[in-house]
Amino acid sequence: MKNALLIFLCMAMLSPEENANAQTDNTQIMKDAQAALAAGDYEKAFAEYHAAANDDKNVLAQFSLGLFYQNGWGRAVDKAIACQWFEQAAQGGIPTAQHLTGICFEEGIHRPANPAAAANWFQKSAQAGHTHSYCHLGNLYMTGKGFPKDPIKALTLCHPAAEQGAIPAQIWMGKFYLQGDASIQDMQKAYLWFEAAAQKQSPEAFYYLGIIMDKGLSQGHTPRKARQMFEQAAALKYVPAYFQTGKHFFDAEPDPGTNQLSAEHLAKAYVWLSATVQRSENPEEISAAKEILQQILAVMPTTWLAELDHKVAQHLLESH
User: Fold this and answer.
1) What span, in angstroms and rounded, lies between the C-alpha atoms of 50 and 28?
2) In sequence order, what are the residues at sequence separation of 6 or more whose Cβ sits closer than 8 angstroms to the Cβ of residue 174?
3) Cα distance between residue 127 and residue 305, in whole Å
4) Where are the alpha helices (DSSP H) in the chain?
5) CA-to-CA dists, residue 99 to 58, 68, 94, 184, angstroms
6) How far is CA 20 from CA 17, 39, 106, 250, in A?
7) Do 119 and 148 form a contact (C-beta atoms < 8 A)?
8) How many CA within 13 A on the CB side of residue 250?
9) Cα(173)–Cα(161) distance, integer angstroms
10) DSSP per position, 273-318
11) CB 241 within 8 A of CB 207
12) For residue 103, what are the CA distances in angstroms to 85, 117, 151, 169?
């Protein structure tokens, strides 16, 4: 089950010393919590982790509780409470928790925004092996958020992790060159970093390749190729790609024989725009998607709805 896999991955990010400590603290209550989570019993898992976090001060349990609130496992998403648990786990030495705590301070989620505190946690996380934390630290210099703006330092901090093949770092390098400070923007370099991440099936990388192609920022790419990139990102559950995918299918070239949108493109536009309405957190996207859906429903056979709505529901169910 993917939830149990997330916990496993997080444990894999610990340093050897931290892993040893986690194993020492891995009491029966933690084993029961892991088993309950793997079985999808969120309430039992949460109760077990909560007991371990409070009674045994188990840092892995504290981190796990943060994931419950961050991901909405069996309860409403609450980023502030998630950050509170991440900070406790960060103080206990878990690199991933230190990284997430840095984000919490950068965005001012559970405490007032504090770039210096964010930088401190990113530094700790990166030094413990969570190397793409250097890119988040770099972004503080790229944007001048709490620090003197220094785009070159931002690239220097992030580049080693990207060169070593860390997908998040490759995404950051792509974004720096795509939309960072004007002094270092380079569409060709942005494209190459996103392409490197896309080769590892990064949905976010496919999305940004679509953005570059759609805006005509790279040579030799057609609207069809941009649409393919967006669709690949959407199929891999990258929510920001849903609207772009649906919109591009709706705006696709008409069928030469009928001068109308093909049945396949009409159906795909409906599916991805419906997914947008249900999952996007962007009010403007949701509004635009609803308007286009009204146009689609005016011409699409009603007999298609049951099958297409089932596809939407199935995709969104698999996304959780």
Assistant:
1) 14
2) 190, 191, 193, 194, 197, 205, 208
3) 52
4) 2-12, 16-24, 28-38, 42-55, 59-71, 79-91, 95-107, 115-127, 133-143, 151-163, 167-179, 187-198, 203-214, 223-235, 240-250, 263-279, 283-299, 305-318
5) 18, 17, 9, 26
6) 5, 26, 30, 54
7) no
8) 24
9) 10
10) HHHHHHH---HHHHHHHHHHHHHHHHHS-GGGHHHHHHHHHHHHHH
11) yes
12) 13, 10, 20, 15
Q: Which one-letter amino acid corresponds to residue 95?
A: P
Q: Is 35 exposed, middle or buried (CB count within 10 Å of its CB: 0-12, 13-18, 19+)?
A: middle
The number of angstroms, rounded, from the C-alpha of 26 to the middle of its chain's C-alpha atoms is 29
With a CB cutoff of 8 Å and minimum separation 6, the contacts of 118 are 102, 103, 104, 105, 106, 136, 140, 146
Half-sphere exposure in the Cβ direction for 207 (13 Å, CA): 17
Instruction: Enter the tokens of residue 128.
Output: 């413990």
- For 298, the token pair is 């005016």
DSSP 8: H
Report the candidate in 302, 260, 303, 297 with the shortest Cα–Cα distance to residue 277: 297
The pLDDT profile of the chain, 320 residues, written as one tens digit per residue, is 444 444 444 443 444 444 444 444 457 889 999 999 999 999 999 999 999 999 888 999 999 999 999 999 999 999 999 999 999 999 999 999 999 999 999 999 999 999 999 999 999 999 999 999 999 999 999 999 999 999 999 999 999 999 999 999 999 999 999 999 999 999 999 999 999 999 999 999 999 999 999 988 777 778 899 999 999 999 999 999 999 999 999 999 998 888 899 999 999 999 999 999 999 999 999 999 999 999 999 999 999 999 999 999 999 987 65
- The token duo for 35 is 């088993």
